[in-house]
Design goal:
The complex is a heterodimer. Chain A is mainly β. Chain A is built from no helices and 11 strands. The N and C termini of chain A lie far apart (40 Å). In chain B, strands 2, 4, 5, 6, 9, 10 and 11 form a 7-stranded mixed beta sheet that branches. The termini of chain B are far apart. In chain B, strand 7 and strand 8 form a beta hairpin. Chain B is mostly beta strands. Classes of the chains: A mainly beta, B mainly beta. At the A-B interface, strand 5 and strand 10 of A face strand 5 and strand 10 of B.
Chain lengths: 113, 115
């Protein structure tokens, strides 16, 4: 059974701080990992993907992957109120095939002005 | 806009009704998906279609019936639903290869309420 675990939050951070969102997964075969952002009442939108161990940076976002520990995280620097949303960790495939994506329950982030 | 549209955006139906959800993707993708999102639960994959062929049915009850007439359109036919089927139904599409790095793009969803 493939599982993706996230702390549901809410995670509250002051504006300008770094928000750290964490995700663990159970399927050791998984090779790719995605972070989606979902605003309330909206559909998920992809913000980051990562396939190799280490860090991947894109603007204020940094994804970190440690396959040995089965851990992927998302850092948001200089957090803004507009970053307030639910962040979903998604792990496709592994033993289930690439298209069978397993999503975590999401972490709700609140950025306090 | 992501290039994936869904209609209707909101739907209220009784347990004896029959209705259909429609999804259309304008991205030239070859794979389409139906997901269910309930409160406090993770997104649940329901169905996957590759090149119009169903490749995944994630143990979905038969009261949900998908149809994919071509690679751009996907339907979800609903009949004799239960109140617990009330949820946000999301359609997604992707261009599938073999790398596992294919990104899924979501439509805006249909908010379904079953009375």
């Amino acid at each position: 059974q493939k599982e993706v675990e996230q702390n549901s939050g809410p995670l509250s951070v002051p504006e300008g701080a770094i928000a750290s969102l964490n995700c663990t997964y159970s399927d050791r075969v998984s090779q790719s990992f995605f972070w989606y952002r979902q605003y309330s009442g909206k559909s998920p939108e992809l913000i980051m993907s990562i396939y190799s161990n280490g860090d991947k940076e894109d603007g204020r976002f940094t994804a970190q992957l440690n396959k040995a520990s089965q851990y992927v995280s998302l850092l948001i620097r200089d957090s803004q109120p507009s970053d307030s949303a639910t962040y979903l960790c998604a792990v496709p495939g592994g033993s289930g095939g690439y298209q069978k994506v397993t999503f975590g329950t999401g972490t709700k982030l609140q950025v306090i002005p | 806009e992501t290039g994936v549209t869904q209609t209707p955006r909101h739907l209220v139906m009784g347990m004896t009704n029959k209705k259909s959800l429609k999804c259309e993707q304008h991205l030239g993708h070859n794979a389409m998906y139906w997901y269910k999102q309930s409160a406090k639960k993770p997104l649940e994959l329901m169905f996957v279609y590759n090149f119009k062929e169903q490749t995944e049915n994630n143990s979905v009850p038969s009261r949900f019936s998908p149809e994919c007439p071509n690679s751009s359109h996907l339907f979800l036919h609903l009949h004799t639903l239960q109140p617990e089927d009330s949820a946000l139904y999301l359609c997604a599409s992707s261009q599938e290869g073999t790398s596992g790095e294919e990104t899924q793009y979501f439509g805006p969803g249909t908010r379904l309420l079953v009375l």
